[in-house]
Design brief:
By secondary structure, the chain is an alpha+beta fold. It contains eight helices and eleven strands. Strands 1, 2, 3, 4, 5, 6, 7 and 8 form an eight-stranded antiparallel sheet that branches. It has a three-stranded antiparallel sheet with strand order 9-10-11, with helices on both faces. The radius of gyration is 17 Å and the shape is globular. The two termini are 27 Å apart. About 7% of the residues have low confidence.
Length: 236
């Protein structure tokens, strides 16, 4: 679901408690996040995106804990690419059971959508970050409506791309869903051209610090610099 793809933060209600969290989507569409031990002990857990408000996407989730060592390391690294060092040390992958948005109840499977561009995702990110690094600020202004000094592309999916700023993740959507990697690249070339043409006339708010998520929450400034580079360079 585009709304879930387009955010990386939310409020997690577990039992009677609420805590801000950051998340990333796994290639299969499930939700990756680090959590407190207390969250693992609750059965009733609901993620509110982007926050606990009347117009939020509410997702009832079931947690499956995984270890960072072994096969789970790729999921943890994907989260770090987005957000840096985690505030908590327990990793889970959350499966949506059901959701509510705009007055409608949605089956969990309907918002658990695999990224069909996963095979070419790292290559597209590498192309944007290496060949079009100077164009990404204009793309972020034009496509996400925010001024970011040095954004970096951290994901590509059929609905758009996510750019990492200093303080948050920003979504640049495609005009329509992309069926193939080639379609996505062509759409990005168009977006880049449009963004550069519009850059001279663009007036948007500048990125600013936002409230931390959780205790000692990592933000973009805390990100280990090598994780994203390793992911891009090791892509087949």
């Amino acid at each position: 679901m585009e709304f879930l793809r387009g955010h990386g933060r939310g409020d997690l209600r577990f039992g009677e408690h609420v805590r801000g969290v950051k998340y990333a989507l796994a290639p299969d569409g499930r939700i990756v996040l680090p959590v407190m031990v207390a969250m693992l002990q609750e059965v009733d857990t609901v993620l509110y995106v982007p926050d606990m408000s009347d117009d939020a996407l509410e997702v009832a989730v079931t947690f499956e804990e995984f270890k960072e060592s072994g096969s789970g390391g790729a999921l943890a690294d994907r989260w770090r690419i987005y957000h840096g060092d985690p505030p908590d040390v327990h990793w889970v992958i959350a499966s949506p059971d059901a959701a509510r948005f705009g007055g409608f109840v949605i089956d969990g499977e309907a918002i658990t959508v695999a990224n069909s561009l996963t095979e070419g995702e790292a290559g597209l990110c590498r192309w944007l970050n290496q060949d079009h690094a100077d164009d990404l600020p204009a793309l972020c202004r034009h496509g996400a409506g925010i001024g970011v000094a040095a954004p970096c592309c951290v994901s590509v999916d059929p609905g758009g791309i996510n750019l990492r700023g200093q303080f948050d993740i920003y979504r640049v959507p495609f005009a329509s869903e992309m069926a193939t990697v080639d379609d996505a690249r062509a759409a990005l070339e168009t977006l880049l051209a449009d963004a550069n043409r519009a850059a001279a006339d663009s007036t948007v708010p500048e990125e600013a610090p936002i409230e931390s998520v959780g205790e000692n929450a990592g933000d973009a400034a805390d990100r280990p610099p090598g994780i994203l580079d390793d992911w891009l360079e090791n892509d087949g």
